[in-house]
């Protein structure tokens, strides 16, 4: 048993053996090996066909348009979400109820149904116009245009996805804004900062720590939701191309596996990016699990080591 210079005997603590951990790890490894063996050795998956199509031009085109749709939909959704989150907290009841109605409608109806209605937009409104409401048709202050000409399937796809995503992101944004203390607003206002500057420089950076993880999940979910734009129909996204090529070659399973591999690759990349963003906005909020739990070896360090550690601590010198 170790003894310090003060004559205090230190306990020679040993970790409690936990055989259950090793047993569960062995069982999990066996199950993983069995699953991998079943996937690799099953000839019905036709892995040679999978790798033939994995980097084909049509599949890569689908990957590109899927990424573009995801990015544009998230940009539209994020812009709408910030606007709706601010409107939800407005003192103006009209703005507050408009935001609530938007969130209620787009969260309450299926995304597939919304995309079908977007595909019917040229039928429901063959012509749209910009002008002064209710007066443009009387005085000629309007600019009509053909809906089918300008609202292509690609435009309807990312607008429909963005409008739906904005309703979900709005609640995430609102939760993040509410996580910031009201005193931050009051202190910045007392310094004479404009509200826009307060929101951009003070509130939003602190709220991002709460906002980033769920937005990362929503981005990954949006990546897979793009497979529903065939309802418009938009025929250049990954799942539609894989299904179409699979039907043409009578090999639907290998083509869908190739699409699934690309979804996994893109998802892994998004998760990696999310982890870096979380670390950036989480500075100063990391968990300190080892705080105050110094080991016996640490407690028996010399006075010089304690002085060296003390010099690393920096305190504010407050002068009355």
From TrEMBL:
Keywords carried by this UniProt record: Amino-acid transport, Cell membrane, Membrane, Transmembrane, Transmembrane helix, Transport
InterPro entries attached to this UniProt entry: AA_ABC_transptr_permease_3TM (IPR010065), ArtM/GltK/GlnP/TcyL/YhdX-like (IPR043429), MetI-like (IPR000515), MetI-like_sf (IPR035906)
Gene Ontology BP terms: amino acid transport
Residue span, ABC transmembrane type-1 domain: 63-274
Stretches assigned to coiled coil: none
GO annotation, cellular component aspect: ATP-binding cassette (ABC) transporter complex
Pfam families reported for this sequence: BPD_transp_1 (PF00528)
SUPFAM superfamilies found in the cross-reference section: MetI-like
PROSITE patterns on file: ABC_TM1 (PS50928)
Keyword flag Transport: yes
Protein name: L-cystine transport system permease protein tcyB
Organism: Schaalia odontolytica
Source species taxonomy: Bacteria, Bacillati, Actinomycetota, Actinomycetes, Actinomycetales
